[in-house]
Fold this protein.
Amino acid sequence: MDDAVVSHALSIFKYALLAGLAVSALLIWRKGVLWGIGIGALMVGAAGFYGAASVGWPRYQALAHTERIQGRVVAYVSENGMDSKGNTTVWRAPVVEFRAADGQLRRIQGIGGSLPRSKEGDPAEVRVAVGNPADARVADFQDAWGLVIGLAIFSLFPTLIGLALTYAARRQQRSPALEQDLP
């Protein structure tokens, strides 16, 4: 996957988050809390779904023009990261060796956490671009679709919250009698 596509999707999401907060503040001031938070949440959710689609569609097209080749896990590389509490975490990223259609023996590294049950020497599938054996990736669901599904699930929550709040705001706007009952 081209890192530029992922960077673009995450940038759009980041700027939509900021715009959603600004629009929320403006709508809270002008129309009320329900409208403000609801529309802001819908903006954030829509931007997240856009990000998922802008990563998912090129990923789908790229995978459609690949062929599966059998390789084998030759090593695991440790990747260090930090969790939300600042603790250091270590992920194992597989290194897979395969023989491409051009006859050359090649190695690629999967993402951390990919092929978790495999050990060195185990077979592993590789997806290789037709006509470009240098463009290959480990044929793992997490490697192919993890970011897309993560963005989509993350976007679902603000979208549902936004729909519920704008529905409540609309009902409140239609019947002023409901407003009198509120403290």
In short: The first strand starts at residue 66 and ends at 82. The first helix runs from residue 3 to 30. The CA atoms of residues 172 and 178 lie 6 Å apart.
